[in-house]
Every structure is written in structure tokens, then in C-alpha cells.
Amino acid sequence: MSGNSFGHLFRFTTFGESHGPAIGCIVDGAPPNVPLTEADIQQWLDKRRPGQSRFTTQRQEADAVKILSGVYEGVTTGTPIGLLIENTDARSKDYDDIKNLFRPGHADWTYHHKYGVRDHRGSGRASARETACRVAAGGVARQVLGSDITIRGALVQIGPHKINRANWNWDIVEDNPFWCPDAEMVQVWTDYLDERRKAGSSAGAVIEIVASGVPVGWGEPVFDKLDADIAKGLMSINAVKSVEIGAGLDAASLTGEENADEMRMGNDGPVFLSNKAGGILGGISTGQDVVARFAVKPTSSILTPRRTVTVDGQDAEVRTKGRHDPCVGIRAVPVGESMIACVLADAMLRQRALRG
Questions:
Q1: Under a CB-based contact definition with an 8 Å cutoff, are residues 305 and 317 in contact?
Q2: 86, 132, 192, 297 - which has most CB atoms within 10 Å?
Q3: What pTM did the predictor assign?
Q4: How many CB atoms are closer than 10 A to CB 118?
Q5: How many CA atoms lie within 13 A of 265 on its CB side?
Q6: Where is 151: in which H helix or E strand?
Q7: Is the dihedral of CA 174, 176, 177, 180 positive or negative?
Q8: Looking at beta carbons, which pairs linking 185-192 to residues 24 or more positions away fall under 8 Å?
Q9: Terminal CA-to-CA distance of the chain, rounded, Å?
Q10: Average pLDDT of each block of 10 consecutive residues along the chain (356 residues)?
């Protein structure tokens, strides 16, 4: 299987399956003498960890990361960093009934026909369990980036219910189970997801990531634009179906005057009067906040019977048992943050190689 690595100078490769003994990643390209401990990585894995509310899968995984290589006496050595996360609460028997069925919305059909074999236990390599590896790599990337760059994510929509941006408050994002910046929307989402969960159904979501402190000049024009790398990183996350930068799709409804981010001179140089571009022009960071959004489809593992076919070509119905997120978008927030961190760490190292 190809395509398990991401990045250029800062590059990571993930491995493992949902119901295997462990998952993990190899991070290559981190400079030497960057402070790094397991605690630096664990704080981000704890944000993604399952079973923290009734709105996420009840699979109980500690997601405790182990550093296997690349760190000596609390700093990176410049050699590959090996990270391991053991699987401790897999229940493979939950998937026995669907072994010979293709679940609608899942990768069962495509994996089966591409490889001629598939791991039906929790979707194997196609499981969102793999995203814990990305969060671990993102923890390393944040250390490489340093404290001057802040990367924060929030849920801005669940199902048809969008936040009121006038109520945006970063201070409450970690005080509710949804990473929601709008206090008035928390109860709406609670009631809506309770309905979806009790009905054996699921809901989609939209996540917004904001990176502050990114200096001007990062990103490689043409094919390695900063926004192109961000789009690839976010689109590679399980269940993601679209990505927006800045104004995104709304830019199509704006006039040229409305979309232009005008500039004026300030005390410390040019100041932008808006940020429709999402902090990126010509594929290069402008010095403004880098803003990206991505949409996650409803969880495909649902209890409601769906029509499908079997491996031997018979019509059938399938309902997925086991422990699943009624809204996988909730735990996608720290995953999206981590992919942005990895993209920015790579962009920083490429800019350093170019300009010193």
C-alpha cells in the first residue's frame, strides 16, 4: 500500500490498523535540539481520545504515546522519531456479522476491489483510529513551530445547525463536548445529537481551524502552494468531503470589491482590512491568520438498516453494531489542528532552507 506518508522536509508515515496490536508513526525531518517529551505529544492526543462524552465512540483507549527513537535527554536528535500507541480496547467480534457485506458509505467496497483483501474489523487501515497517529505527529510539529504560532480549532456546524459568529468566544471552546465557540449553540447540538444517537443515526459537521502568528512568506508557489498543501492534508482525514480556505465557497457570491483584502500602512508596516483570502495569497502566507474549514460527512456506521450487497453478489441489508461516533466531526477538531501543524512545520523548514 502506497500513500502512507505526508510532507516534504517535515514528513511523517503512519502505520497500523484499528484492531491490530498498535498504531504509530515515524516522523522524519524534525531538526535537532527541539525540546520534546511524551507529555508534549500526549496533551494533544488527550483532546482526540475516544469515550470522553456520550457524543463520541465509547471505545476506551488511553492513547498513551511512547517515544521509541529520535529523542535523547528531552530533545530531538535530528534522526527519525518513532511513536507508538497501543490498541487496548478493540472488540473485533462486533464486526463478525458484516464480514461478507459491503457497508454503504464505507471503504469496504473499494478496499476489497483494490487489494483483493480487506480487514473488516473496524475498517482496518481505513478506520478513523489512524488519525491518532496524525495527532501524535502534530504534537511534534507544534514543538518544531514553537510557541509563537498558535493553532486552534472549533466546530462551527453540526447537521443543519450553524453557530452565530457574533457569539464566537475561544475561551469556551474547551468547556463543552463539541469544541463549540458559541455558548447558545451547545444545547441545540446536544438535543440534536441525542435525537440522532437514539435513532441509531449520525450527523455531519464543519470544523474551522485558525493558525495565528504565521509569518509572511511561507508556502511554495505553483504546485506546493500553502493552501494546496493544507487542502491535501485536511482532505486526507477520514470522512472529509470538502475544504475551504478563507471565504471559501462564499467567495463565489462576492464582488471583486467585497473580496479584495484592502491594505493600509500601520505603525509596524502594512495592515490588511479584511481576510477573505484566509491568510494566503498566491500560495504564500500573508502574515494574517491562516483560516481553513473542512466538512465531515455523517458517520457511516449506523444502526439503521441500509441496503447493500454481499461479497458473493447477493442483495442484503446491513446495520453496523459496535461503538461509533454519532458525529465523527467532534473528534476531527484536534485532527484538523494537527494536520495544519504538520503543513506549517514543513512550510517553515522549506522557507528556512530557502532564506536561512
A1: yes
A2: 132
A3: 0.93
A4: 22
A5: 0
A6: strand 150-158
A7: negative
A8: 185/161, 188/161, 189/155, 189/158, 189/161, 192/158, 192/159, 192/161
A9: 36
A10: 93 92 96 98 90 62 92 98 88 73 88 85 82 97 98 98 98 95 97 90 96 98 97 96 97 96 94 97 98 95 87 88 79 96 98 92
